[in-house]
Amino acid sequence: MKKLSPNRTVACNPHLLALAPYPPGRPIEEVQREYGLKRVIKLASNENPLGPSPRAVAALKRHARQLHLYPDGNVYYLRQALSRRLGVAPDQLMFGNGSDELILWLALTYLSPRDTMIVSQYSFVRYQMAAQLVGARFKTVPLKNWQHDLPAMASAVDKNTRAIFLANPENPVGTMVGRKAFERFLRAVPRRILIVLDQAYYEYVQASDYFNGIEYIARHPNLVVLRTFSKAYGLAGLRVGYGVAVPEIVKDVDRVRPPFNVNRAGQEAAAAALDDAEFLQRSISVNEEGRRYLYDQFERLGLEYVPSQTNFVLVRAGREGKDGAAVAEAMMRRGVIVRPMGGFGLKDYVRITIGLPRENRLAVRILEEIVRNADRKPPHKLQ
Ligand SMILES: Cc1ncc(COP(=O)(O)O)c(C=O)c1O
Question: Atom 15, ligand 1: which residue's CA is nearest?
Fold first, then answer.
């Protein structure tokens, strides 16, 4: 047996050793401490800049005295409310500690080490991590013009393929594929293959050919649609996501789901946020305004960006001698946290979450100074 170090007397599962922990956006408090900054804004994790829905906050306050009790493992009230809202049966809903958790439960339920998951290039990395966690393989299909290449994804299916995970709109790129392309894809993929359509940014999409994935479940029982309360509903800190599928899939996932995975506070707040139509509308219009502002500014600065259907924009902020990570680091030192995209193979890019108007202005002002300084630097002399 291989000798372990004095502090490592217990061996880690070998298939996990290739996995690096997911690097989340850095918390505001950590950046304040590290750089000695009073004011820091975070435009790195696609959170809602308006804060939580006021109705959700009121529900949380009312509920604070119940926190000694375990949550309802069946998520009864939120299930009923969502079932009415979405027009699906209550037993078609599964809930997770964020939709992130459902990604893992779905992988655990349906993938084994013999299987392969298909994902898109630059995909939300939690999909491939979920495959790796269960010892399965993943196959990556390149994007085409920054969009999912659905025909190529369907053609990539082979006898080992067990699941396809697809964020639409995509994170971190921000693009989406339309209804017709998705319908062709559904028809092309064999029904034994699980298709997970992740619509985390559903509420923000403005494109007219976008679609509600839930409509296809009746005809395609291999489809699971994921949504979240973390983005447009402003509840990322409470961790509530859900999936819609045929009841058989919900029952399968229930075999692996821990009984109390969605906490009490989250269930209450999510049900209240669902009823807060005004907040949702405001979230969408603030995002729209910010998106247009950022496009205008990126164009003024001559920065390439990818038009987005989400609450973030991928922008090529890197310059000769200063890649996206260096730009993100320079912005962080000045109190604006954005996400460098080098880890996705997009070395020159950063992803900027759309904030409040004043946050967007500040981000642009700082970005402009950094980019202009990079341009002023003399080019490297050839020896
Ligand atoms: C495409 C996509 N899916 C899922 C998630 C996870 O969201 P949550 O776990 O907060 O519901 C995110 C978060 O950024 C995301 O971008």
Answer: 200
Residue 119: phi, psi to the nearest 5? Answer: -135, 165
Q: What is the dihedral of CA 87, 148, 170, 117, to 10 degrees?
A: 80
Q: Is the pLDDT of residue 314 over 50?
A: yes
153 & 299 share domain: no
- Is 312 a domain residue? yes
- Where among 276, 296, 328 does a domain terminate? 276
Phi, psi of 186 (to 5 degrees): -60, -40
Q: Give the nearest ligand 1 atom to 167 CA.
A: 1
- Residue having the nearest C-alpha atom to atom 16 of ligand 1: 171
Q: Based on the fold, state whether residues 349 and 370 are members of the same structural domain.
A: yes
CA 312 to centroid of ligand 1, rounded, Å: 13
CA–CA gap between residue 52 and residue 48 (Å, rounded): 7
Reported as a pLDDT band with limits 50, 70 and 90, residue 22 is: confident
Pocket, ligand 1, Cβ cutoff 6 A:
46, 98-100, 124, 167, 171, 198, 200, 228, 230, 236, 241
User: Which of 276, 310, 325 corresponds to the end of one domain?
Assistant: 276
Q: What's the token pair of residue 175? A: 């693009």
CATH code of 285's domain: 3.90.1150.10
Q: Is the domain of 220 the same as that of 366?
A: no
For residue 1, pLDDT over 60 is answered with: no
Distance 381 CA to ligand 1 centre (A): 45
This prediction has a pTM of 0.95
* Cα of 56 vs its chain's centroid, Å: 22
pLDDT band at 381 (very low <50, low <70, confident <90, very high): very low
Is 32 within a domain?
yes
Is 44 in the same domain as 176?
no
Look at residue 166 in the predicted model and tell me its pLDDT.
98
**Could you tell me if residue 7 is inside a domain?**
no
* Unique residue bearing structure tokens 């393989």: 137
Residue 332 domain-assigned (yes or no): yes
Distance 200 CA to ligand 1 centre (A): 6
The helix/strand/coil state of 252 is helix
Residue 26's pLDDT band (cuts 50, 70, 90):
confident
Distance (Å) from CA 99 to ligand 1 centroid: 6
User: 215 and 109, same structural domain?
Assistant: yes
Task: Calculate the CA 374 to chain-centre distance.
Answer: 31
User: What is the Å distance from ligand 1's center to 346 Cα?
Assistant: 20
What pLDDT does 377 receive?
A: 57
